[in-house]
Amino acid sequence: MSIIQLPPREDSVPAPKITAQTLLERKQAHQPITALTAYDYSTARLVDQAGIDMVLVGDSLGQAVLGYDSTLPVTMDEMLHHTRAVRRAVRHALLVADMPFGSYHSSTYEAIANATRFIKEAGAEAVKIEGGRNRAELVSTITQAEIAVVGHIGLTPQSVHRIGYRVQGKSVTAIDDLIADARALEAAGAIAVVLECVPREAGGLITSALAIPTIGIGAGPDCDGQILVFHDLVNLTGAQPAKFVRRYADASALITEAVQHYASDVRDGTFPADAESYHLPREAGAELLAREPQKRSGR
Ligand code: KIV
C-alpha cells in the first residue's frame, strides 16, 4: 500500500451538483445526459472529476468486480459496501445505487427498508429497480417514502432465467408494451428510466412518450442520455463486448504491460533504484560506516 495521501476531494469539485431536477432540465433543453457505472473510490473519483452527470453503482458489480457470472448472486451487503466507497468520491454526479436481485421482490416492507439503507447508510441519492408495470406500485410506494427511483426496462439482467440476455422490444406490440411500462413508471414517480438493449426505434419512441429522461444502454442515440459499464468503456472485462459498447481505452493492455514491466524490473534488480529508497540521516549513516563491516551489514 502506498503511503502517498490522496488529495482531499473538496479541491476538485468540477461543477454544480447534479440532481433529479437537473436531469429533467437536461431533457427539456435537449442536452444529452452522461452516465457511467462505478464501484470503487478511485474510479468513481475519476468519473466524477470528468464531469459525468450520473454515477450508477450497478449490480453489474457482480460480473465487473466480484467475478460472478450474472448479477443474481449480488447481495445487499456487497452493494452497500461498494456504494459507500463510491459515495466518498462523488461530489458532482447524481449517485444512484442498484437494488440487487431479491432485495425488493419479497415484500413492499422489505423493499422500502432496503431502499432506505442505500440512502441512510451508503449516501445514495436514488435507487434503481428493474421492471415495468409490475413494479409501478412499488416505485410509487418507495417514492412516497421520499426515495427517488430510477426505473429499468428492456433487457433486465435480473430476469435472465426468464427472458435471457436478448434484445427486447423487437415487434410493434413489444414496443407498445415497453411504452406502457415506461409510462407506468413515470406515473409512479420515477425520476428517469434506463432502457437496455432495445431497437433504436423503441428507444426513440419511449423517449418521446415520456416527460422524464430516458438513459439508454444499447437503446440507440435518441435517448435523453447514455450509460455504459465503466469496465466495458476501458476494456477491463476480458470478455467480448456487446454490440453497443464502444471502447475508449484499453486498460487491460495498459495494466498488463505495466505489471509485466514491474515484474521484469524486480527480477533483473533494476527496481527499486537508489532514488526510490529511503536513506539514513547523515549522522546515522556515518555511525553505520564507522562500525566493523560484519556489524554494518546487520548479519
Ligand atoms: O448494473 C448495471 O450496470 C446496470 C446498467 C447496465 C444500466 O444496470
In short:
The chain is of the alpha/beta class. The chain contains 13 helices and 8 strands. Helices cover 41% and strands 13% of the residues.
Please provide a written account of the structure.
The protein is an alpha/beta fold. Helices cover 41% and strands 13% of the residues. The protein has 13 helices and 8 strands. It has an 8-stranded parallel β-barrel, surrounded by 7 helices. Helix 2 (41-49) packs across helix 4 (76-87), helix 6 (133-144) runs parallel beside helix 8 (172-188) and helix 8 packs parallel to helix 9 (200-209). The radius of gyration is 24 Å and the shape is elongated. It starts with 19 loop residues before the first helix and ends with a helix. Mean pLDDT is 94; it is low at 1-6. The structure holds 3-methyl-2-oxobutanoic acid. 3-methyl-2-oxobutanoic acid binds next to strand 6.
Q: Determine the strand fraction and express it as a percent band.
A: 5-15%
Shape designation = elongated
Tally of individual helices: 13
Which regions are unreliable across 5 or more consecutive residues at pLDDT < 50?
1-6
Label the structural class: alpha/beta
Q: Largest sheet, if any?
A: 8 strands, parallel, barrel
Distance between the first and last residues' Cα: 28 Å
